[in-house]
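Side project, low priority. Logging it here so it doesn't get lost.
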Amino acid sequence: MNIKLILVLLVAVNSLSLAAETMYVDDKIQVWSRTGPSNQYKVRFKLLPGAKLEVIQKNEETGFAEVKDTAGRVSWIDSKLLSNQPTSHQLLADAKRQIEKLKRDNADKVSTLERRLNELEPLEKINQDLQSKLAKIETELEQSRQKGQVYESGFKSEAFFAGAVVVLGGMLFGWLLTKLGGGKRNSGWN
């Protein structure tokens, strides 16, 4: 029974190491991959520094890992030459892609803003025309107010003068009537 348990545990441990893990080729060197899990096997192809790899399995005895590159090619490589962190080559490539994306996004935004500015140019001309007309109307309104004040003050002085002339004329007329009538009049009350 113990042998079966040990076999089950070995299969479980081995299957855990089969889980795909992303690793990167060390960015200091170029690496030759091999057809098997040691340097005794034939060279397969060259992996560039920073190459992204998927680990298929690890051979703990030799220290080699079976990997698959982004082109789907499967080979073996010494695990000491792998890093679980993206290398400077990978980070630089990612940064360059991000910069290019930001440049495209920026160019799109600039294009959109330029198009909107072109759409606003006629509105700016209309706005300037309306501002000019408004200034002209406000000037005319102020001139009309000033004329109204002049006419109002002229009317008041003319009305006052006309009233004074009527009063004086009435007094003069009354005085003349008394002088021309000569005598006393007979009122019906006496």
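Brief comment: The chain has a mean pLDDT of 81.
Revisit when time allows.
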